[in-house]
């Protein structure tokens, strides 16, 4: 089946939708003989619930995931078993800490006022074309860096400076995507010889590691001098983490701290900016939805405490991530062979790819209008939000490894959306091609170019 994959590669996500729709939500992909590229492709909620929740123990991230995502080291995204449990519990305690959440809200509000709005005002005044995706990526990079390291790289400024770190992360995401498809022996050989994407990945990781090493050593030095910080961040938290409570964490190791911080930076950066970019594009295609959101903001919103009243905005954001999940797929491998609820037998250490993108578009799961953008499907008759089970709406994952930043991400999406929609109108530049890049994060391949005007 490799030749058809190669032909369909530029539209691989939509190809998966067609295949899964035609094959009752499960499809066994056969790669080249002995290449180790066979996998079961699924968008079947019964299998997804089984893999991610009811038989979670049989589906660790496993050694192959760790190899493919080696740049994340021992951070939470690639960790398993007891280390993952310690990381999960400690992450949970900081992400749900009142002081951290307050810091997250105030940092977002201040970045919108001092970073986003001046750039939009400049685009209005000078009538220049703006790439919304680039702007949102800079925004979320600055915010995640503030929350994870306590350091603001100021990548979102009028000058739009080159951001070496962000470019390095883009390269690593692309290289990791291709590692899923290539025979292990091939990408390992490329890595060893130092050619192609593997060479780019190695070079870009040098930049990432240098930057993180500087940040970590200067924080250790400041803390050693007794400097007290006014707001919480992940780096300081882990340098001081209680190892009597979390026995497997290694706060003295710079490599360990690097892995923890880098994994969280990646988890938080491109996911939220991807959701924002697709959201504004969908709004530009659906002016009726934009008008309803605007009406809701005008009638129900006064200050950030009112964000939870914005039910239609929440519905439109959920609908965006149903159709364009920032993480389009998840990759799993059983420790022991078993039969899935669909009847498919999976061998131990075989590959299962859950297409989160296809799941959101399956007619048998979402109805005949599955491919339409309809925020109304998320609203109950009494006006409240309809909560879909996470194995059906999988954007934030499901089961014990559900996204730890979900509430934070939704808060950030709403803060940005409200301030922009209240103050500006956008026009999509005509003639540009809107398509997703084939990578681990669903970004737009050519960005999203717009012109901006101020609301009167
Ligand atoms: C729209 C934004 C976001 C989406 C759609 C999203 C989605 C996801 C998904 C699908 C996973 C599972 C990944 C896997 O198992 O391989 C995940 C895990 C995770 N996310 Fe998010 N995420 C978002 C934002 C954030 C933010 C802002 C943070 C942190 C502040 C965050 C922190 C995490 C962490 C720590 C995990 C690992 C959980 C674990 O393995 O136990 N995410 N996220």
UniProtKB/TrEMBL annotation:
Its cofactor is heme. GO terms for biological process: lipid metabolic process. The keyword Lyase does not apply. Keywords: Heme, Iron, Metal-binding, Monooxygenase, Oxidoreductase. InterPro entries: Cyt_P450, Cyt_P450_CS, Cyt_P450_E_grp-I, Cyt_P450_sf. One of its GO terms (molecular function) is iron ion binding. SUPFAM superfamilies: Cytochrome P450. It comes from the Eukaryota. PANTHER family: CYTOCHROME P450. This is Cytochrome P450. It comes from Capsella rubella.
